[in-house]
Amino acid sequence: MLISFVIPCYRSEKTLSGVVDTIQKTISTRPGFEAEIILVNDCSPDGTFEVIKELTEKYDNIVGVDIAKNSGQACAIMAGLKQSRGDLVATCDDDGQTPIETVFDFYDKMQEGYDVVCAQYGERGKRSLFRRLGSWANDSMIKFCLDKPDDINTSVYFLAKRFIVDEMIRYENAYPHIGGLLLRTTHNIGNVDLTQKNRASGSSGYTLKKLFSLWINGLTTFSIKPLRAAVFFGGIMAFVGFVAIIVLIVGKFVNADIALGWTSIVATNILVGGIILIVLGVIGEYIGRIYLCLNQTPQYVIRDVIDKRDDK
Predict the structure, then answer these.
(1) pLDDT score recorded for residue 214
(2) How far is 239 from 43, CA to CA, in rounded Å?
(3) Is residue 302 within 8 Å of residue 67, measured between CB atoms?
């Protein structure tokens, strides 16, 4: 059985070799399994692609993919998934934090009948408060917008059957969200409890802008719930406004000397105006994404592929 390992790579020239060596050693521990490793360089500014070239020379089961423009982790994963040929496909990080040596625990869990098995981290490596808040916001968004059941968890480290991957790569629009693609394909997802390692070198490539972009992708790509939420809040404000009008009218009849000040009017206008701008922003985000998809904005552009699999 062939397992494809898809690894998006960014600023990982110091850690990538260790991740690859761990995969090679892990696969060799169980007879009947082979591995292919797809390393996707997401236009890293350091020497990551040079390391990938060296690894393709060292091992004949490694595919190197070089993306021409930084496209983000999700798009890099999609590029790797399209290159994969395995009966099963695993994804992991390039920084050494993913305990990839547990991949056969995922395989054993899959034998219980699951289509996908994802990591569920009880304890994580050293992470900043900023990253923890980002993860919490992303998980909350997935539950709200993508109807994720409470008893399953999705993560970047997962093992999926071939038909799941084939369905995922059918998505060609500009804003993929890996968790959303998994959940719209199946809810038959199992979990393996793990402890995330500390980062071997460097720091996370996720900035506030990238985390916000990831959150927005999940919020708007596979769900119209934000639009429904906007309608809901609009209805609440209309009701509040109606009640306020009734109260003011009754108060005026009860006490004709009441001076209706401008403070309440200005405050109401600011509140309602802010809600209107939020609603218009949500609608505009959807329209903008529709426009980009109609213009066939690519997920990624591949500059080069180093693939020696057919030479074997």
Answers:
(1) 58
(2) 51
(3) yes
Closest by CA position to 134, among listed 77, 192, 207: 207
pLDDT, one tens digit per residue, over 37-61 is 999 999 999 999 999 999 999 999 9
Q: Could you tell me the two tokens for 280?
A: 């218009």
**Would you give the distance in Å from CA 301 to the centre of its chain?**
19
Helix axes 262-294, 208-221, angle to 10 degrees: 80
CB-hemisphere CA count at 13 Å for 220?
Answer: 21
Edge-to-edge strand list for the sheet holding 62-67 = 189-195, 116-123, 158-161, 88-91, 2-9, 34-41, 62-67, 302-306
Tokens of 175: 């804003």
Q: Which pair of structure tokens corresponds to residue 150?
A: 């409470």
The mean pLDDT of 74-82, rounded to a whole number, is: 95
pTM of the model: 0.75
Phi, psi (deg, nearest 5) at residue 180 = -65, -40
Q: pLDDT value at position 273?
A: 74
Q: Nearest 5°: CA angle at 85, between 194 and 48?
A: 65
Tokens 């408060």 — which residue? Answer: 129
Task: Answer whether 74's CB lies under 8 Å from 42's CB.
Answer: no
pLDDT at 211 over 60: no
